[in-house]
Design goal:
Helix 7 (117-144) runs antiparallel to helix 8. The protein has 12 helices and no strands. It is an all-alpha fold. It has helices spanning 2-14, 22-42, 46-49, 51-58, 69-82, 93-114, 117-144, 149-162, 170-187, 190-198, 204-207, 212-230.
């Protein structure tokens, strides 16, 4: 564990400093992104012991640019998955608040970027995918610290309003808005939110390939929750 603990911050630093050959960078970054998931699956305590390193890394969208998208998205997913007391009893309210603040900051920054027509055209698919993962991670963190639910509801509601007529292509925008609306409905049931959202532990190997089957399974779960709220 101590060796893995030393490797993690190094990979976050070095993933943007690889030798400048495109094919080499792409292959190494894919390997590092895949290994990142395995590291946290084997050692979920990393989410507690490296909270400062992780929040510093996720605090800037620059860390998802220039081919680093998969690694960045994996980090966001990992926060939503492993920042939970059932993985490590040291996951306190203070730690959840720190992760929430980092995710919220990125969500608002990404929302602004997506409103730019040039950014939406150049990286729209990756960015809307990141936004969906971000919103889900925010909702998961809030479900484990209910004092955060009002802030996350406000954040999700703002995102819906901002992107009702955004420059993102219609299909991607609809997926993003649907996810936000459904998460809002889940968070309106605080007593059930944690249970419902914990069931959304996607197989990220499938999710990173943007599997339609995986998305449909999540959508079905969210639609069930939505119907519970509406009735």
């Amino acid at each position: 564990y101590s060796v893995i603990g030393r490797v993690l911050p190094v990979t976050m630093e070095r993933i943007g400093q690889l030798y400048g050959v495109a094919t080499f960078q792409k292959q190494v970054r894919k390997i590092l992104a895949d290994e990142l998931l395995l590291m946290f699956k084997a050692f979920p305590a990393l989410i507690i012991d490296h909270v400062s390193d992780i929040t510093e890394y996720t605090g800037s969208l620059r860390n998802m640019m220039d081919g680093k998208e998969h690694y960045f998205v994996h980090i966001i997913w990992i926060i939503g998955e492993y920042a939970a007391s059932h993985y490590d009893e040291r996951c306190s309210t203070e730690i959840l608040v720190k992760y929430h603040e980092s995710l919220e900051c990125v969500a608002y920054e990404l929302s602004m970027v997506l409103q730019s027509s040039s950014a939406a055209k150049q990286g729209g698919a990756n960015m809307t995918r990141l936004m969906s993962v971000l919103m889900t991670a925010l909702a998961k963190v809030a479900s484990r610290c209910q004092d955060l639910i009002p802030r996350v509801l406000l954040c999700l509601t703002k995102i819906v309003k901002q992107h009702a007529e955004s420059q993102v292509d219609r299909a991607s925008r609809q997926v993003m808005l649907s996810r936000a609306s459904e998460l809002v409905n889940i968070l309106k049931m605080p007593s059930l939110a944690a249970t419902i959202l914990s069931a959304m532990s996607e197989d990220f190997a499938t999710a990173r390939k943007q599997s339609l089957e995986g998305d449909r399974e999540i959508a079905l779960l969210l639609q069930t929750a939505t119907s519970l709220v509406q009735h």
